[in-house]
Amino acid sequence: MEWSLERVREMVAGGMQSMRDCESSAFGTAMCLLLLFVWYCYRVGREHSSSPLRGGYSTEPSRVGGGGGALISTERDGRAKGRPVSGVEEQNGFAYCQSTECFRCTNTGEGLNQRLYHSLQDYAKRYTWSGMGRVHKGVRDQGRYLTSRPTIQRPEVFFLPDLPSAPFFSRDAQKHDVELLERSFPALLAEFENIYHAPPARAGSSLPPGWKANSTPHGQWWTFYLVNQGTPLALNARRCPRAWRMLGQLRTFIANNVFGNACFSVLTPGALITEHYGPTNVRLRCHLGLRVPSSCELVVGGEPQCWSEGSCLLFDDSFLHRAFHEGGPEDGPRVVFMVDLWHPNVAAAERQALDYIFTPGR
After folding, report:
1. Per-residue DSSP letter, 329
2. Comparing C-alpha atoms, which of 56, 301, 73, 18 is closest to residue 168?
């Protein structure tokens, strides 16, 4: 049964009138309490909606920041350039981030720390402080955590204390989602082939629609985002319907905050992604190998690993990491499907609070 706002208000008013007419009636009191509970559930549902991936993608481009924003595509997982968005770029399924609240585009510091703390206080007033010990500790002491971390692990935006840390994690850390991704290997590979070999987006462009070229010192690094910083890219999602449906079936995909991304990532022969840190330790980055030549490697926290086709690698990208493809032109590109999953030791209550604090555009 679908409840409208006016209908709920009428029921509450009627319940209150009934209670006044029957003050001594236990039934009237119970009905009033029941209707007040329905009203509360309605308000909570409106304010804290479920994952945007449930039920498919929107037919309209997703917006950032509530006003005038556009679909996001970024360099290096969110380092966007503030420049105007042309109509052509929007038609290609990507645009540059225009939000002044983008956590990877703004400087960290006292201003960001204050915004995080105010967001946490607002969350606690609306919902609860229960289970917020680590989140509160992390937000309160964020400046100290970010500057005092060892150089091997130094997230750029947010550090949650007391999480087990390691460069690489066992596939059992998120077994259900890893197995689902690996079962989806043929479908993801087929959709990659379709979008990768499509005609160029426009005259003079070497990239098909939806792809973004990222800056690298050597070679080429291209990404095709379905979700970027928690914001779905509707045009790209329509080009990859099976990948989009698979994302909606993942149990631990970070779908509702700025730390969540899902994309196809391509490294051409000779390409190098230089050493860098991710924004937070609350996630594990998962790479499903789609095409993996022999001369490719991922180094996280000083530990090297190689991708393999049809298998997932789970790693904590808040550790210093880099990737490279040292093969020749005959080897072809290295291709992975990348998705951000929750760290297994972040509790459900903490995930809900972090989704609220780091809502895109907040």
Report:
1. G
2. 301
Between 120-129, 137-146, 337-346, the lowest mean confidence (pLDDT) is in 137-146
CA geometry: angle 33, 38, 39, nearest 5 deg: 95
Q: Judge residue 11's burial from the number of C-beta atoms within 10 Å of its C-beta, 0-12 exposed, 13-18 middle, 19 or more buried.
A: middle
DSSP state of 315: E
Residue 56's closest CA among 226, 228, 224?
A: 226
What CA–CA distance (Å, rounded) separates 188 from 190?
5
- How far is Cα 40 from Cα 38, in angstroms, rounded to an integer? 5
CA-based nearest residue to 352, from 39, 131, 176, 116: 131
Alpha carbon 219 to chain centroid, angstroms: 27
For the chain, how many residues are written?
362
Averaged pLDDT for residues 159-165 = 94
Which residues, 6+ apart, have CB-to-CB distance to 121 below 8 Å?
A: none
Question: Using one digit for the tens of pLDDT, what is the confidence trace for 267-290?
Answer: 999 999 999 999 999 999 999 999
**CA–CA distance, 109 with 168 (Å, rounded to integer):** 29
pLDDT at 229 over 70: yes
Q: What's the pLDDT tens digit per position in 290-349?
A: 999 999 999 999 999 999 999 999 999 999 999 999 999 999 999 999 999 999 999 999
> Which tokens in the block code for residue 249?
């079936």
Which residues lie closer than 8 Å to 207 by C-beta, 6 or more apart? Answer: 200, 201, 213, 222
CB within 8 A of 128, min separation 6: which ones? 349
Alpha helix stretches (DSSP H) within the chain: 5-21, 26-47, 87-91, 110-126, 133-140, 142-148, 175-183, 185-196, 234-239, 241-249, 348-357
pLDDT in tens, 76-87: 333 333 333 333
